[in-house]
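Kindly review this protein for my students:
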Amino acid sequence: MDAAVVIAGAGPTGLLLAAELAQAGVPVVVLERDPEPRLAAMGMAVNAGVVELLAERDLMDRIGADGLPWPRAHFAQLWLDPGRVPGRQAHTYLLPQAKLEEHLLAHATKLGAEIRRGVTVRGVRQDAGGVTVDTSAGEVGAAYLVGCDGAHSVVRSAAGITFEGSESAFDGIAGDVEVPHGHPLYQQLGANDFSRGLFSVAPSGMGLLRVATGEFGRRPADRAAPPDAAELRAAVRRLTGQDIDVGTPRWLGRWDCETRQADRYRAGRVFLAGEAAHVHFPLGGQALSTNLEDAVNLGWKLAAELAGWAPSGLLDSYHDERHPAGARTCLTTAAQLALLHPAEQVAPLRQVMTELIEFDAVNEYLVRTAGGLNVRHPDGGDHPLVGRRVPGVPLPPGRGVALRFDRSVPLDVSGWAGRVDLVTAEPSADVPAAALLARPDGRIAWATDSADPEGLAAALSTWFGAPARA
């Protein structure tokens, strides 16, 4: 075998998954068809959920230096106030996806992941012993294959996984344009909605602006043809009624209005993650947060299986947890679409929603939804923290942690040495519990408010396998 795990696709999902596996000592190879890192990446923001996830991995200080904190959030471009949400809150960052990929590439390669560029995946076959990937550079063998190769995933098709959903007529153009200081586009900064669709402008680098237009009910003349400056300028004119110079494009691409989800995230030894598993209208960074959560959920489970200590059903729990999360993201982005178009029909509903957002509970719910902060899995457990991410606590990479805030709580994790660390910490207002057990992906598997740690052994066995014999 060439590696224990082969990943198709070196976008953010594939790179973070590769880093998670390499951190756990798993030999991993990433196959990427593009010969060079891409500049034409549509993403422009990392939401609060992604910021928390990257901070856990000690990456946010470096990545955040290339971004701009954005202490706002929106739901269907109805503006929310994260500052009204109680407790410590991570903020969204304006950050071009190409820059995020640059950092994740450096992170993955530093940990030992191998990136093979200019390699196209053409087919897949598997048996009980492993997976063979047919590529433009020959066959590659592995114990497991993960398709992180986007909406048109070759891996998904080869595995026989369906990708049902819907698509609406939509004409979207986005890209980075070079503009001098004082250019008229600077007067258009922000996210704006019009009767025909959306128009946004945001800084994306020195002398660069990210411009995006989206027109509902319209299809491009040739979807396969790359847009040019004239087409972008015409779209801006149709939306705004103004003829605005759009600068000199460094790159332009198309985006669409499509919602689809794979019927299953696993077929034998083949898994799907990111946009190979789910696509939806891009709003508020929810796509990226859902994609990266797939990566961290799957990474430690594959590592556990390969290390030989995974409990029965652990790999299947990836689909069981992430498929509902992906479905929820598809639902909430579809709800936002319903609040955007047709503009005349939804105007009264938007007015009522604006009034509802004045209520703190509504504002908090939508802030958490838009920020990817309300995902809860494993779903279950009596304690309200179970299934949620450990807030504000850095975790040891690739390992579970039994975290004790009350020193009187007896926590025995000796049978899981090497899989779970025992840490005693000062009480934190952000973590209302006496003790908890966190999985390697940062999700809380067990928590207690008392000095009697009932249920800890069961949680340890459920997520970290049988205890080692003395």
In short: The domain at 3-162+263-338 is CATH 3.50.50.60 (FAD/NAD(P)-binding domain). The mean pLDDT is 93.
